[in-house]
């Protein structure tokens, strides 16, 4: 059994070695370390993992200098950079910056397309705007697999729109929460070649560890929950998502 945690954040205080050792003991042999701010980008690069680097929706002020910095980081670490992210839209927490978020998101999608890298997208209460921005990008790079919508919380209808546009769908510990029936419905709906699992460490620890600080090892609980929902066995579901993750983000 092997699992790939496709979304974990590391901070200045993260015990990287301890987190990765416990992950490995649990069978979580690969982790994508995800950036989004200067601190998160720097700490993703502090790990031995493949990384996603980018400017998240709360970084709308980065401007041209921020994009020059990002391109430098990506070029200097080309062998480890598996994606641009996380990027996206959140109109739940920050509706007042919607226009600026859309502008940054569009620019990063075009940036990722130019560098032929997949994207890691966050979207919350912004379904229509997310599709609108995705559809505004020319998508000139050859692969039709464009990236992943991480910690998916929507229903099957929005998932279908995203799948049609060449995205994978990743589920976090939210899928295990008692009230998350709609998310579980989506976890049953996504086809087997497009589904991923993640923790979104240090947030969103799954049941039965809810309330603890999340870490990559805990993705086991999320994968077990989804395997049960899909009426498949845990080991083959783990292997399936591992293969999808490597198809999107590259081999070790
Ligand atoms: Zn995240």
Overview of the structural elements:
By secondary structure, this protein is an alpha/beta fold. It is 41% helix and 19% strand. It is built from 9 helices and 8 strands. The chain has helices spanning 16-25, 38-45, 63-76, 98-114, 127-135, 156-164, 181-189, 219-229, 234-249, and strands at 3-8, 28-36, 50-55, 81-90, 119-124, 147-149, 167-171, 195-197. An 8-stranded parallel sheet has the order 1-2-3-4-5-6-7-8. α4 (98-114) runs parallel beside α5 (127-135). The longest helix is centred in the middle third of the chain and has 17 residues, at 98-114. The radius of gyration is 17 Å and the shape is globular.
Looking at this protein, list some descriptive labels.
alpha/beta; 41% helix; binds zinc ion; eight-stranded parallel beta sheet; 252 residues; single chain; 9 helices
Please summarize what this structure is.
This protein is α/β, with parallel strands linked by helices and 252 residues long.
The main β sheet shows up as: 8 strands, parallel
Q: Give the helices and strands as they follow along the chain.
A: EHEHEHEHEHEHEHEHH
* Termini Cα gap: 16 Å
List the bound ligands.
zinc ion
- Quick check: average pLDDT? 96
- Helix percent reads 40-55%
Task: Write down how many β-strands occur, each being a DSSP E stretch of 2 or more residues.
Answer: 8
- The secondary structure category is alpha/beta
Strands side by side in the biggest sheet: 1-2-3-4-5-6-7-8
- Please work out how many helical segments DSSP would assign: 9
CA radius of gyration is 17 Å
What best-fitting shape do the alpha-carbon axes yield? globular
């Amino acid at each position: 059994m092997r699992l790939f945690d496709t979304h974990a954040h590391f901070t200045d205080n993260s015990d990287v070695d301890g987190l990765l050792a416990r992950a490995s003991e649990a069978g979580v042999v690969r982790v994508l370390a995800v950036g989004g701010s200067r601190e998160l980008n720097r700490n993703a690069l502090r790990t031995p993992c493949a990384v996603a680097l980018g400017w998240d929706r709360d970084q709308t002020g980065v401007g041209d200098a921020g994009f020059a910095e990002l391109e430098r980081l990506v070029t200097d670490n080309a062998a480890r950079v598996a994606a641009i992210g996380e990027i996206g839209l959140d109109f739940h927490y920050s509706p007042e910056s919607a226009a600026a978020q859309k502008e940054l998101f569009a620019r990063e999608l075009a940036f990722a397309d130019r560098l032929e890298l997949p994207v890691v997208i966050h979207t919350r209460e912004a379904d229509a705007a997310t599709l609108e921005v995705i559809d505004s990008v020319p998508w000139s790079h050859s692969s039709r697999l464009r990236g992943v919508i991480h910690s998916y919380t929507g229903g099957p209808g929005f998932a279908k729109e995203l799948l049609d546009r060449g995205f994978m769908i990743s589920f976090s510990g939210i899928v295990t929460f008692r009230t998350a029936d709609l998310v579980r419905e989506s976890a049953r709906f996504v086809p087997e070649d497009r589904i991923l699992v993640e923790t979104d460490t240090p947030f969103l620890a799954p049941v039965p560890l809810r309330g603890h600080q999340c870490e990559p090892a805990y993705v086991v609980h999320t994968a077990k929950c989804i395997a049960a929902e899909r009426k498949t066995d845990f080991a083959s579901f783990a292997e399936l998502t591992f293969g999808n993750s490597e198809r999107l983000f590259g081999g070790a």
